[in-house]
Write a structure and sequence with these properties.
Helix content: 40-55%
Radius of gyration: 23 Å
CATH class of the largest domain: Alpha Beta
Number of helices: 19
Structural class: alpha/beta
Number of domains: 4
Distance between the termini: 68 Å
Shape: globular
Largest sheet: 8 strands, mixed
CATH superfamily of the largest domain: Vaccinia Virus protein VP39
Length: 436
């Protein structure tokens, strides 16, 4: 009998190879939720670990094939990669169990003829060996590592690669009065309302409405968007132009309890999922299905948040399939859409209003280059230094003094940029623009 976790992980890996689905979504389906806690955790480990190391695993597997350049079926490739990952990286898993289940997964599918090949290849892999192929940089496309090295330096590029290969920490946004029973936590790195899970399953706290899973850098961007402007009397209208999945929207609802807040997304399904996540507080929202790049806005909004679609290279610890799908040419296509969204959103900014442009990308094409391109033709708007906003968040008790110190290297006079591994969070970019 095949272990339930390996069976579930195998199906997810096949689905990821055949579609544009995201691992995070597929690991939260009712089928996975129905597994025992132990099997659910192992399924997550197998899926994310195999994806994180896939490029290096392929380099280990190929020389062991009778025909190293042969094209493998999706089933054979998934079974070999998942088996090799367990043999090379999970030293507590018996090799005989790994090989048995890998072969059985093939025998029970349409590629049963490949079972002998899978058995032969995995028996040639020495558990815990192949150290030269376990270097984090080899688990990333070369072009990514090269551009990070040029942009941020060799040490930072190495830190990003190491961070991407470890399970992403679970950060929570918690209610000030929440009691999280059965969950061991520690304070967040930056924010007073953030916790990090040390031990336990956060799912129960999330279902009870006591907490929300949200990376600290994501929380910080929303706090920056909500920070008051000097001399500002009242924020009446707030627009979240690319709202789903809704974590930042929830913080805007917290910080602007009396404002009219509108959330826009191109997907009705994503908006519905967001409203389910928000629960009763979401009843305050106006929601609209619209393409943010095609908005025709009047200059009436006091705050606008543009968390634009991006490559996501700052989130590869939790979304490892990005490195397997993204090409360098994709960055320019993303930039074109991002510029269109920012242009459309700026048209809606009221005099004195502020807009926050943000991505979870490490790439300049999606960040500084977008800001520069739009401001070049929009002299009615100016950059607001991030450093002063962070100082205000400290004074308000939202950002801790220790967190502010940790973010010294993340905040230039103009931008916020967190770098995974250099900072203990996802990689985010944020810039604040103000209508003159």
């Amino acid at each position: 009998m095949i272990a339930p976790a390996r069976h579930a992980a195998f199906r997810i890996l096949l689905q990821l190879a055949a579609t544009h689905a995201h691992s995070d979504d597929l690991l939260r389906t009712p089928e996975v939720d129905a597994l025992s806690v132990q099997d659910r955790n192992l399924t997550t480990t197998l899926v994310l670990g195999t994806l994180r190391w896939q490029l290096a695993l392929d380099a280990a597997i190929r020389p062991l094939l009778a025909r190293p350049n042969a094209k493998l079926s999706p089933e054979a490739a998934a079974s070999l990669r998942m088996g090799a990952y367990q043999l090379l990286h999970l030293d507590r898993v018996p090799a005989h169990a790994v090989i048995h289940d890998s072969v059985e997964l093939i025998k029970h599918g349409p590629e049963r003829g490949a079972a002998g090949m899978v058995n032969a290849v995995l028996r040639k892999i020495v558990p815990g060996a192949e150290h030269h192929l376990q270097t984090p940089a080899l688990a990333h496309p070369g072009w990514m590592v090269e551009r990070w090295t040029r942009r941020y330096g060799a040490d930072a590029a190495e830190a990003i690669c190491r961070w991407d290969q470890e399970p992403a920490a679970t950060a929570l946004r918690v209610d000030a009065n929440a009691g999280l029973s059965g969950l061991e936590t520690e304070p967040g790195a930056f924010l007073s309302r953030a916790l990090r899970v040390v031990r336990g399953d956060a799912a129960a706290a999330v279902r009870a409405g006591q907490a929300r899973i949200q990376d600290e850098a994501s929380q910080l961007v929303a706090e920056i968007a909500a920070a008051p402007r000097s001399g500002e009397a009242r924020v009446a209208k707030v627009l979240d132009a690319c709202a789903a999945p809704g974590g930042k929207t929830a913080i805007l609802l917290e910080r602007f309890p009396h404002a009219q807040i509108t959330a826009i997304d191109v997907s009705r399904n994503r908006l519905d999922a967001m409203l389910r996540l928000l629960g009763p507080v979401g009843q305050r929202l106006n929601v609209e299905v619209a393409d943010a790049a095609r908005l025709e806005l009047r200059p009436e909004w006091d705050r606008i948040l543009c968390d634009v679609p991006c490559s996501g290279t700052g989130t590869m610890a939790r979304n490892p399939e990005i490195r397997l799908r993204l090409t360098e040419a994709d960055l320019q296509r993303q930039r074109t859409r991002q510029i269109a969204i920012l242009r459309a959103a700026l048209a809606g900014l009221a005099p004195g209003g502020r807009l926050v442009y943000c991505t979870c990308s490490l790439e300049p094409e999606e960040n500084e280059d977008v800001i520069t391109a739009v401001l070049r033709e929009a002299p009615a708007f100016r950059m607001v230094p991030i450093s002063g906003i962070l100082d205000h968040l400290v004074a308000a008790g939202l950002l801790t003094a220790e967190g502010r110190q940790l973010l010294r290297s993340a905040a230039t006079s103009s931008f916020l940029r967190t770098i995974p591994g250099v900072h203990p969070c996802d990689g985010f970019f944020a810039a604040v623009l103000e209508a003159r």
